Amino acid sequence: MLKMILSFAAIALIWVIGDIISIKTKSFVSLLLTGLALFAIAFWTGLLPKTAIGAAGLATVGSLSVALINTHMGSLMDFKQLLSEWKTVVIAVGGLVGLIIGSITLTRLFMSRAMALSSIAPISGGLVATLIMATKLKAIGLPDVALFVVLLCAFQSFVGIPITSWCLNREAARILKNPDSVGKSSVNKQTASSSENKKETTSQRFKLPPLPQKYQTTYILLFKVALVAALALWVGQYTNKIYLHPYIMCLVFGVIATYFGFLERDILTKANSFGFLMFALMALLPAMIRDASPHDVVTLIGPIVISLVLGAIFIGIFSAIIALMLGYTKEMGIAIGLSAMYGFPTSYILAHEVSRSAGKTPEESAAILNHILPKVLVAGFVTVTISSVIIAGVLLNIL
């Protein structure tokens, strides 16, 4: 038991250091990047045994977490917000289409097919998509590609954040020059949302009554998530034959169960379980790099740089073109598309930083924030939470 607790504490300490650095740098240096670098050093120097993840009991819990967290992600979907920001959704998805096209054409010229295809999942999303892809790659005997995928996920914020910050500052300057257009669009959105609310009250969909607050306990909520996840995995055994991975079905079933009221919105957070399950999930990442040598990491620097640079270019081009077609600026379009490379909470932090620095008065800052924040938040949800998991699930079947 002492060994288990000490292993758990050592793993937690490394993530603590990464978390502090992430907070201090306002997410520019990600928790993932710092944490993985420290884990690699600890493994290479022998400070942390390579068996630490298993000794802490996190390997099994982490594997369990994947299905539960995917189902939880479905409970986060807000159809009203997605409908009100439908242009943002189209631009974000268009950017990912550009990433896919770029990866299977140009990126493929610089690296193996497995690397080029696998790069799509981490660049299009975050931790869950990366873990799904890396686990599969390791299982089919491609540990070097699995390491490549994990490192891509760790380094992508260094490309996505500075470009997005520049684009959002350009967008903020445009808003200050022409505030009337933003004001009108805000009024139109409020009118549209109020009319949608009226429609829903006149034609209510079937929805299960919510559980009384006193019954929304950790045990009951976890049981409901597990039940939906189990059903999704059972169906996923059959859909996997048509390239719909069981983890995709967890996401889909989470959306459906929440829409009809069986699952509460943001259910794992309400069950006081999300933080621990994410901690266990993240413990799977060091397991992907524990057998890698410094030489293995150095060898992958070239493919990592090429993948991130070309990925950002293709996402930016496609997002900008679609944005101009839909009446947005190319800068706003690029910022929406590149949300895939950082997601929440970085999107939230960037929007607030830009609004504070660009606005000379509280009113100007509020106008900028109200314009850019909903777009980057929705874009991050569409790319990181939804699309990347779907893309990873499809890619697993064609590697």
Walkthrough of the structure:
There is one protein chain. The protein has a single domain, classed as Na+/H+ antiporter like fold (Up-down Bundle). The model is unreliable at 183-203 (pLDDT under 50). Helix 11 (157-177) runs antiparallel to helix 22 (362-396), helix 19 packs across helix 20 (330-337) and helix 20 (330-337) packs across helix 22. The two termini are 40 Å apart. The chain has 399 residues and is mostly helical. It has helices at residues 2-24, 31-45, 52-55, 58-74, 79-84, 86-105, 113-118, 120-124, 127-139, 143-155, 157-177, 179-202, 218-239, 246-259, 267-270, 274-282, 284-289, 294-299, 301-325, 330-337, 346-358, 362-396. Helix content is 77%, strand content 0%.
Q: pLDDT below 50 for ≥5 consecutive residues: which ranges?
A: 183-203
How would you sum up the major sheet?
none
> What proportion of the residues is helical, as a percent range?
over 70%
- SS field, number of helical segments: 22
Task: State Rg.
Answer: 21 Å
The N- and C-terminal alpha carbons lie at a distance of 40 Å
Average of per-residue pLDDT values = 86
Q: Which oligomeric state applies?
A: single chain
In what range is the share of β-strand residues? under 5%
Question: Based on the structure given, which CATH architecture is correct?
Answer: Up-down Bundle
CATH topology: Na+/H+ antiporter like fold
Please tell me the total number of domains: 1
Protein structure class: mainly alpha
General form? globular
- CATH classification, class level: Mainly Alpha
**From N to C, what is the helix and strand string?**
HHHHHHHHHHHHHHHHHHHHHH
The total beta strand count reads 0
